[in-house]
Amino acid sequence: MIRYRFLQFLCFVLGALSSVTFSHAQDNSALRLVPHAIRLSTGRNFSLNIPEGFEISVAAQGLRRVRFMTQATDGRIFATDMYDRSDNSQGTVYILDGFDPKSGKFERVTPYLRHLRNPNNVAFYTDSSGQTWLYLALTDKLERFRFHAGEKSPSSAPEVLATYPDYGLNYKYGGWHLTRTVAFGEGENKDKLYVTVGSSCNECEEKEEIRAAVSVMNPDGKNAHIIGRGLRNAVGLRWVDDTLYATNMGADHLGDDAPDDTMLALATVSTDPSESRNYGWPYCYFKDGKAFDDPTFTSSPKKTDCAKVPAPFATFAAHSAPLGLEYIGADSKHPVLQNYFLVALHGSSKKRLNRGYRVVRLKDQSPPEDFITGFIKNGVIFGRPCGILKIGSDAFLLTDDHSGVIYYIGAKP
Q1: Is residue 75 a part of any domain in this protein?
Q2: Of the candidates 88, 129, 197, 286, which lies 20 to 30 Å from 336 by C-alpha distance?
Q3: Would residue 311 count as lying in a domain?
Q4: Which domain holds residue 82?
Q5: pLDDT tens digits for range 19-41
Q6: How many domains does the structure of the chain reveal?
Q7: Coil, strand, or helix at residue 186?
Q8: Domain of residue 292, CATH code
Q9: What confidence score (pLDDT) does residue 177 get?
């Protein structure tokens, strides 16, 4: 009897181990990354690693700090370009047109607007009269243009809807965080425009409410108010199923391994300004998904109760610098993409950490998994992922604002 029970126990243990091993093998096979040669017109040659069964091509190149992309109502792709950090007057909005799925390339890249101050993204909205508008987020202001299908440049002067602080520390041309991101809502919020403005510093108590916050307004700029505070630098915005998601970068003074960078599901209260939610910064930070008091501000009378700070939807290793995010929904036929978020991790300025410099995929309650790697190798930077835009059911575009490249990544037919 004893021997029989021992054999039963042994079979149970071996079965459990084989189950774990099988499950682990399945996870690895789902995202087995294979190298693909990349050759740029600058002469740089390197490899990017993408999931087996996918292909990658250089869809456009020769750009500068190319940032975020949006598909216009006429089907064309609009991309912003911040030029470089030495000059903030040469930003451009480009039209990407004539995409060939077979070659994975755009036929034409033409300027739509020039001489802009750090253009980060654009958004499109069609009002009740049928007029379509292009919204442009700049460091110092938010403006909109009347938009007509097929046009190659704006046919009207811009309307300024809001102005933003354009000074601060560190960078001579506008402060620590220079980008502004705009996104229109979905569902009951479809006629609301959401705007993020980053902090003026690494760690401080802001003097201007609009800093380190997300606000909401009507499409004409009226009834603007803040709905979320304590967001040090929320750059990526993406609506999915009536929820607004944002990526957010943590502070830089807590060492190499803290704080977590985060992705948040934002509360989108759009009627009562008093219901704005606080996401913690500068008083709280996350480490391993848990909220802690920032020791710099423990004696501040303005201190936030970190126990009440909303938990992040997902976390990333410290200094990964998450930027753009995209959601590949149920319309995808590929299990590697279906119902996953893709997040571009721009990468740490401390190259030795080897943090970021990749694209990851994730779902709720699951850790990020590498989807594209190879942008840094042996301390040499080949690219910094920035913006992601889904095109079709199983493909997306990815900007690299270090090399001025836009990549096409898609499932093989």
Answers
A1: yes
A2: 286
A3: yes
A4: 38-411
A5: 333 222 233 336 899 999 999 99
A6: 1
A7: coil
A8: 2.120.10.30
A9: 87
